[in-house]
Amino acid sequence: MRSKVLLCWSSGKDSAWALHELRRDGNLEVVGLVTTVNAKRARVAMHAVRLELLERQAAALGLPLHTVFIPEPCSNEAYDAAMAALMGEAKRDGIAAMAFGDLFLEDVRTYREERLEASGIEPLFPLWGRPTEALAHEMIASGLRATITCIDPKALAPAFAGREFDRGFLADLPGSVDPCGERGEFHSFCHDGPMFERPVPVEAGEIVERDGFVFADLIPAGGDVPREAISRKGA
């Protein structure tokens, strides 16, 4: 019997690729996505993706979504308490592991491992140690599509907000910026790729500066469109 896994889901490209890799493992079964959502704004924490889009995304992936609502601002204690409650429920439901899309930040990995230790749930890092430039190009070559929803202007020009995560985007990145944005230089919303049953149509909204970051809003575009319809439209 395959081990049941929950995936910590940011709505971005790294989470999506982690799902892709986990599904390739015949010993694992991803049974749900876990996302922290800003309760005041009804948006994914940091990525600022609308809750409605997050829900459409999960449906297009064919997975149940577990939302963890957190206050604004959110202390470490409040975050830890909310996640501990969810992990307690997960353990009772037979969840064996929690997976994360982290790439190389040792302090982040250590934090996650320490928080899960008492729960008896194993932490998994399916992308850990992958060279990020090669990984970014692999994602794009697979047909993964993502839009940049958040920029740290201390690391990257605000004009990058709202751009597509594609080869042109990678070519324009300064050398100081990680190609996957692992240090928080940018965040994304993934709306198509090999892990999806169908694309999630989106439209560009406003670009705003708030709390020291630049955010590009994305708006749901009509209903979810079958992949065949997208192909015909682009033909």
Describe the model.
It is a single chain. 32% of the residues lie in helices and 26% in strands. It has helices spanning 13-24, 51-61, 76-92, 106-117, 132-141, 167-172, 227-234, and strands at 3-8, 28-38, 43-44, 65-70, 97-99, 122-124, 145-151, 186-192, 202-210, 213-220. The chain is an alpha/beta fold. The protein has a single domain (3-228), classed as HUPs (Rossmann fold, 3-Layer(aba) Sandwich), CATH 3.40.50. The strands form 2 sheets. Strands 1, 2, 3, 4, 5 and 6 form a 6-stranded mixed beta sheet that branches. The protein has a 4-stranded antiparallel beta sheet with strand order 8-7-10-9, with helices on one face. The protein is built from 7 helices and 10 strands. The chain is globular, with a radius of gyration of 17 Å.
